[in-house]
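Example (one chain per record):
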Amino acid sequence: MSRILEFKDSNVEIITLDELRESVKISDEKDRHTRIHPVDHDVVFDTITNILNNNNKKYNMSDIHVMKGSVIKRIRESFNDQPVIESHWFKKITGTIYLNDYANKELNSMIKIEYTDTGINLAFGMNVLVCMNGMMAFRGDTLSTSGRNGMIWENAVNIIKAWISEHEKKVMQYQDLVNKMIATSVPRNALVELIGKLEMKAVNQAYIDTSVAAPLNIGQVSTFTRNLMSKLNKEEKLDTLWDVYNVATDLQKPGKMDIGRIIQDNLALTEFMIDEYNVEMSDID
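Predicted structure:
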């Protein structure tokens, strides 16, 4: 009998790729693919891993997270109306493929995947190994099938192939950005101003323009502030832009936020931080 998702201790549950394949597909749910869902969720993962295999890349897969409230009973009989995997359609999932080539002790690269009821979102970025925090910094390293600029799947596949063909260059570019953030000092008295600006952006998103991606939402700004204060009270290292940035990105993980917004909010956070401290992203040839 298929496993039941219980969501006992978290608003997310972990499934495997094989279990994802057992679940109801978007093509089952709507009897066809759509512009924003041109392929099924498992096909997204398989397409990316096939590209990696064809390029002899070393990689490993993270857990796939399913968000509570997005598990919808569909076309097959379920067991006592419980969320049995093969009886349900997952409206919102996320997973990460970690790339091991060009990794070091601190960072490796990754491709982040979000498959939601509004479309498919993908991003190339970096992963901080000590805390598994993600970092997406460049708009050219994100794509989506939804929205006004949503792209067709064939174009998305071509972009993924380009990410892999430029893999080494991209890692060097991100490492250069990280080094600059490490070299950028953030005085303690500057943290109050930084928190204030994040709060203003969060309020704008919540009450004025909901279409805008805020670096952190209102609740996250409060948690971010509390975590900063805790680190300061414990006299933990918190004197560079990289230190402060990682306190914020620790909130952008499955179980801590809407898993369909991790990519766009992480990109907004990275852009905000580097713009605030005039850290320029290098174009490495």
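Caption: The chain is about 40% helix and 20% strand.
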